[in-house]
Design goal:
This protein is mostly helical. The protein is 17% helix and 0% strand. It has two helices and no strands. The radius of gyration is 17 Å and the shape is elongated.
Length: 78
Amino acid sequence: MTTDLKSWVGRHEEMHEVISPTPMSLVAATLDRDAPASALGDPIPIPWHWLYFLPDAQRSDLGSDGHPLRGLFLPQSG
């Protein structure tokens, strides 16, 4: 591992969010399905967890693909 990459080892990102049933209900409606159970402690269907914990990068920190630029949290490639 090069010295440049060693400084990236051990970095982490932590997010907290209050889970609301609304995103699951909206996706279920879009897919013409019944919404999954949404009582406290109910499991979320795979991969519906992607509806939550979304990055909040500013537009100026986004690449052409819409993802956060590398070099902010992940090392730049190449």
